[in-house]
Design goal:
The structure is a homodimer of 205-residue chains.
Chain A: H1 5-11, H2 26-36, E1 48-53, H3 56-64, H4 71-74, E2 77-84, H5 91-100, H6 106-120, H7 124-148, E3 152-156, H8 161-167, E4 174-183, E5 202-204
Helix pairs in contact in A: 2-7, 5-6
Chain lengths: 205, 205
């Protein structure tokens, strides 16, 4: 029994309350990240990293640098979703599976690497935009995949980036873009909050 | 017959080739944006705008500032997905539907507006990150919703932001984060390109 995608999109909530007794297996965590990485990235950069914070010790460290948010310890796992800077430097590696599979030929791969370098070298704003964009699309896909598995998710921007980077030994190129708590709902969560009318945010030209 | 969400995620492609003979109705465009805006945003900012470029005239103008990408004219519609700066200034309006529905009380709404202002005022990097993050999550949700309707999508970062802003009269606060072409597939598109192994991008702690 599967829900149509529009039902999953409509029923997703930003959960604050998680059942602290229920865990996720490593296999479930890997499956969530596998699906998250099906999201698109410019040039197929795949310029993201996912830190799955699951142990009691690591949850406490993350909570301490995230304004004490209780859902980090109650949820089965909280992902630190990072986008990475200087993505043009790792693009050849990111495209290798496509070349190996015969989807892209080496000449296209080389031309993309050159184009990406041209756009990103010496352009910190483009690099950061790309990091935030890729991480956000990956996180969104992860949240919908989780919803489809009967889980709930809680996205968070309430954390101190420099402290998260230090505690979890992120490299200088790894930008923590968002935290996403994932687990089983406890009672009492808000529903999805109402949105502005579509006509307030859409123009057709 | 609906596909499970993981199938939709796995089958989504970044399409380059669209059937230029097939259009989308205004109702279909509105439904795509309604679903896109079910995506979460920090504080429920809803700091996004969607410009649906559908007329022949507007498509030609967008193509001209997007390195001549043909899919912009071939696709039924291309969305300019914008994130907006200074989201804290419009948060009270964005939360009004939640207050009116009784989901949030006015005191919580007021406290969120104060918190958001504290984090975003005089902080252009946070504002820009938030704009890119919200627009990217909205765009990702739109792409999956479209896939669920039997459509294909082509996300693009290949455009000149200042020229797009001028041509489509965006305000200084509207940051075009991504273009998303939407329509019906023509033959010959790439499959979803292979990804790096999950263990390359995931750490469990």
């Amino acid at each position: 029994m599967t829900s149509p995608i529009n039902t999953i999109i409509e029923q997703r909530i930003s959960a604050n309350l998680f059942d602290p007794t229920k865990a996720l297996s490593a296999a479930q965590i890997k499956e969530l990240v596998r699906l998250a990485t099906c999201a698109p990235t410019a040039f197929n950069f795949q310029n993201w990293k996912f830190i799955a914070v699951q142990s009691t010790e690591a949850k406490e460290r993350l909570k301490a640098v995230s304004y004490g948010q209780q859902k980090i310890v109650d949820a089965a796992v909280t992902f630190i979703v990072c986008g990475t800077l200087e993505a043009h430097k790792t693009l050849a590696k990111a495209l290798k599976p496509s070349v190996d599979a015969g989807v892209l030929d080496q000449a296209i791969c080389d031309s993309w690497v050159a184009m990406a370098a041209g756009g990103h070298e010496n352009n910190p704003e483009s690099q950061r935009d790309e990091a935030i964009r890729s991480a956000s699309m990956g996180a969104m896909t992860l949240m919908l995949a989780a919803q489809g598995m009967g889980l709930v998710t809680g996205p968070m921007i309430g954390f101190v980036p420099a402290d998260v980077s230090r505690e979890f030994k992120l490299s200088a190129n790894d930008i923590p873009a968002m935290l996403v708590a994932v687990g089983y709902a406890a009672p009492g969560n808000w529903p999805q909050k109402p949105r502005l009318p579509v006509d307030d945010v859409l123009t057709i030209v």
